[in-house]
TrEMBL record:
Entry GO terms, CC: cytoplasm
This protein's UniProt keywords: Cytoplasm, Kinase, Phosphotransferase system, Sugar transport, Transferase, Transport
Record protein name field: PTS sugar transporter subunit IIB
Record organism: Clostridium porci
SUPFAM superfamilies membership: PTS IIb component
PROSITE patterns assigned to the protein according to its UniProt record, in alphabetical order: PROKAR_LIPOPROTEIN (PS51257), PTS_EIIB_TYPE_4 (PS51101)
Compartmental location: Cytoplasm
Length: 161
C-alpha cells in the first residue's frame, strides 16, 4: 500500500529517509525516476541513504508502476519518491491507488519561481500539478512531517501570474 508519493528532485537523502520513516512507518521505498534508474552510480548512492531494514527499488517510471501494482506489495507500506510532478502524472496514470502527493524539495533552476518554501516550479510543473489536482489527488506542501501541511489549492491561487 502506498503511504505517500513525494516530489523531491534530490530523491532520497537523510531528511527524507529518516523523518518520513518515523511518520509513515514505511517498509519499502520505490524511487520512480528514469534518469536515476539508468545511472548505476546514482543508484548505488541512493541505496546508501536507505534506512536499515527498508527495501529500496530504483526504477524507471513504467517499471515502478508495474512493481507498485503487484499484489505482493498490497500488505507492504511503501513510500514513493519522484523527481518532478510530470513523473508523478505518468506514474499515477498507471496505478490503481490514489495516494496523497507531497511536494517536498524542488530546487531553484532556470525558468522557475518560488511556489513555497524550498519548492520552485515552472509552468510545466504547474500544469502537471493542476492535472493531478483536477483528477482528485490530495496535494500537500511540506518538507518534513513535523511541519503543518499546506494544501496545494491555497498556494496555487497565489501562483497565478
Amino acid at each position: 500500500m502506498i503511504q505517500m508519493i513525494r516530489v523531491d528532485d534530490r530523491l532520497l537523502h537523510g531528511q527524507v529517509a529518516y523523518s518520513w520513516k518515523s511518520a509513515l512507518n514505511y517498509q519499502a521505498i520505490v524511487i520512480a525516476c528514469d534518469e536515476a534508474a539508468d545511472d548505476n552510480v546514482r543508484k548505488m548512492a541512493l541505496k546508501l541513504c536507505a534506512p536499515d531494514g527498508v527495501k529500496l527499488a530504483v526504477r524507471r517510471v513504467e517499471e515502478a508502476a508495474e512493481m507498485l501494482n503487484n499484489p505482493k506489495l498490497d500488505n507492504l507500506k511503501v513510500f514513493v519518491i519522484c523527481a518532478n510532478p510530470s513523473d508523478v502524472v505518468r506514474l499515477v496514470g498507471m496505478l490503481k491507488e490514489k495516494p496523497v502527493i507531497n511536494l517536498g524539495g524542488m530546487q531553484k533552476r532556470e525558468g522557475t519561481f518560488n511556489f513555497a518554501k524550498a519548492v520552485f516550479v515552472n509552468d510545466q510543473d504547474l500544469e502537471a500539478l493542476d492535472q493531478l489536482h483536477t483528477e482528485g489527488f490530495q496535494i500537500e506542501v511540506r518538507q518534513v512531517p513535523s511541519y503543518q501541511p499546506v494544501p496545494y489549492e491555497s498556494l496555487r491561487k497565489k501562483a497565478d501570474r
